[in-house]
Amino acid sequence: MTTEAETEPARDRGDSSAGLARERILEAAGELFAEYGYDATPTSRIAENARVPKGLIHYYFKRKEDILVALVERLPEQRVRCEEVVVRGDLIGSLRALVGELDRRLRSSLPLSHLLWREADTHEAVRSALTQRFQLIVEQTRRVIEGALPGGSPGDIDTASVLLARAINHDHSTARLRATGVELDREIRLIARALGAGRTAEEQ
């Protein structure tokens, strides 16, 4: 029988020990969900692979779905400093830099990204968490466009930001990052032309 001491991380052992147990649970869950699927993975299997008592999983995560939501937090940070990618007057180059940086960060977690987008179809909480990440991409894209192309039409910039963010999300959700060349180059050039910046950027 699992005792309370086994299921609840003891304060005497320190927060670091409790944090490591939670990380092991998430690591094991991510691997098992990716290999066998969410529905086919019982929490007992997660506990076994994480080498923790099953009760400890329920201590950290009240519902199994909460594990999926917590896995979203393990995706790479998406907040890119605009000053690191924006080149004033070069919209194509600026958007290439933004997409390249986002893709670079994602390369270390492609299986996890693909898993979460797959499960988002049937789990509202996961879908909501991923939607928040999408909105961050939209906002960052808008800031990059405004920085590279000052004085543009706000409505056109908003539309372009959503379109490119959707293209980025599609590549990330299907775990597809091109091995060579500039990611989403065709989409970036199309957006630049629509905003009246394509010809100038291509001539530079």
UniProtKB/TrEMBL annotation:
Gene3D superfamilies: Tetracycline Repressor, domain 2
Keywords of the record: DNA-binding, Transcription, Transcription regulation
DNA-binding region: 42-61
Top-level taxonomic group: Bacteria
A Pfam short name: TetR_N
PANTHER family, A to Z: HTH-TYPE TRANSCRIPTIONAL REGULATOR BETI, HTH-TYPE TRANSCRIPTIONAL REGULATOR RUTR
Protein name, entry field: AcrR family transcriptional regulator
